[in-house]
Amino acid sequence: MRTRPVLVYDGDCGFCTTSVRFAERRIRPRCTVTAWQFTDLEALGVTQERAEHEVLWITPAGTVHGGAQAVAKLLMSARGAWAVPGALLTLPPFRQAAHAVYRLVADNRHRMPGGTAACSLPSHLRP
Q: pLDDT per residue over 72-101, tens digit each?
């Protein structure tokens, strides 16, 4: 059984990869970070469709948090002051606002810094 949470992201997306590398360097979450393309998703209890749709935080017990709530869990796992905004993202009305902002960014990640046109394509159509 895993003892650490797992953060699953889209390793083909430049924006996602840049964001995760920032988190690893600056936020330093206590988790294992992996691209879904190199992960046994079935063993983690998630589908490829879900992994393509949003970043995922999977607890050692197998609970899956996606999108803004995965970001909140990542922040709460970090040392220092990062836990405060993470906790706020779990509370109404911040939770709803975080979801809306996450979807806006995720749906437009190909337009974000570090994003590429490939980020907007489904994985089976990417070069």
A: 999 999 988 999 999 999 999 999 999 999
Q: Pick from 2, 1, 19: which is nearest to 119 by CA?
A: 19
Could you give the CA distance from residue 55 to residue 123 in angstroms, rounded to a whole number? Answer: 15
pTM here? 0.90
Any bridge partners for residue 8, and if so which?
34, 56
Quick one: which of 116, 104, 103, 102 has its CA closest to 15?
Answer: 116
Positions of the chain with pLDDT under 70: 116-127
In terms of Cβ atoms closer than 10 Å to its own Cβ (0-12, 13-18, 19+), residue 42 is exposed
The type of residue at 56 is L
The H or E element that residue 52 is part of is helix 48-53
Q: Hey, what's the torsion of the CAs at 124, 71, 114, 97, to 10 degrees?
A: 100
Query: 3-state DSSP: the chain helix, strand, coil percent, rounded to 5?
Result: 55, 10, 35
Contact 19, 43 (CB under 8 A): no
